[in-house]
Amino acid sequence: MKTLEIIFWIALFIVFYTYLGYGMLLYAMVKIKEVFVKPKSPIRLKDEELPEVMLFITAYNEEDVVDEKMRNSLELNYPEEKLRIVWITDGSNDATNERLKKWPEAKVLFQPQRQGKTAAMNRGMKLAKTPIVMFTDANTMINAEAMLHIVQAFADPKVGCVAGEKRIAAQTKDGAAAGGEGIYWKYESTLKALDARLYSAVGAAGELFAVRRELFIEMEPDTLLDDFVLSLRIAMQGYKIDYCSEAYAIESGSADMKEEEKRKVRISAGGLQAIWRLRALLNPFKYGVLNFQYLSHRVLRWSITPVLLFLLLPLNVVLLSYGKSGLLYGIIMILQILFYMTAIYGRYLSAKEIKAKILFIPYYFFFMNISVFKGIAYLYAQKGIGAWEKARRSKDKR
To answer: Domains in the chain: how many in total?
Structure first.
């Protein structure tokens, strides 16, 4: 019984640490660091020093957003003569390429075969000539100052990748998918900013990030989380991933939880895949602080924490049934039951559109962890396949 108690408390600690404790510890570490190490004034590039930048857009059947994306891209506050807009539209069989013909500012690279986003990135980067390449998705809109802020971050020679901020478009009323995703990304953005202040952000989101072209490493074509793997491989070369909240990409949340499940399962599968492909990063003696951040922020979420989370309730039941009836065990049991009850209630509300988005948190949290188990099956089924089905996005109904 003593062994079960030890397992229970270790599991509870890891679950708490993964989702809340790391954020609290990270905040404290950043504050302590900034007391002893005064942040340096950022290096600023003069207008004439700004480098050429390629805006790299991968698209598969995005005819509905081509015109909006092009208008958004041309509104970027960056010297026109230094901006290159490139679309990789491999496999598209709708009107995406026809619409792009109306925009002479865009260079289109197309091949009939659809091999997936990562293969398209590998192909496009072989033709890249600019020192900085900024990646963005066709269905996300970025703020006018985004490119300027990101490029300025590269003035620091230690920065090899810059991650922009992902934002979910706020709607008057949201379903569980959009509401839960929006809350999740606000918390995630806070952690990324703190990670960068401590040492380095742990990965970038594909909606908006940039890299030094010479640091790009061709990825395995079936890579599911291209943005994460690419950015971490740059960090493994000794460079930092900076985080720039002033540069942000806005997109709508998933249309519903069924569509959101497609994303979360793929991300979970990609996380497991990435843990294996980035296994060298698990060496604390070689990667130090980056290893600590990677384990705390990513590896635990995608591996043992979901397992431990769902073990806590049966362990709690066993301990109580064998006479461990202390007040603390009883309180923890009640809290777990309340969590699952609110998650069930959130499931009931998931198809509804309500203003009180906080009601979606328990359900979305439960949903994210279940997705890790589904991700294992997805990873096995998709082995060797780089293409995936994209999730439909919601539209603002205001």
So the answer is: 1
CA angle 256, 259, 261 (to 5 degrees): 105
- pLDDT tens-digit map of 166-198: 988 765 455 545 555 667 778 999 999 999 999
Domain presence at residue 398? no
Q: How far is CA 364 from CA 114, 224, 261, 357, 359, in A?
A: 32, 22, 10, 11, 9
pTM given for the model: 0.91
> Which domain covers residue 112, as residue numbers?
1-392
Q: What count of Cα atoms within 13 Å lies in the side-chain half-sphere of residue 22? A: 24
CATH of the domain at 147: 3.90.550.10
- Inter-residue contact 18 to 305 (CB < 8 Å): yes
pLDDT tens, residue by residue, 210-261:
999 999 999 999 999 999 999 999 999 999 999 999 999 998 766 667 778 8
Beta-strand (E) ranges in the chain? 53-58, 83-88, 106-109, 132-137, 141-142, 159-168, 208-212, 240-251
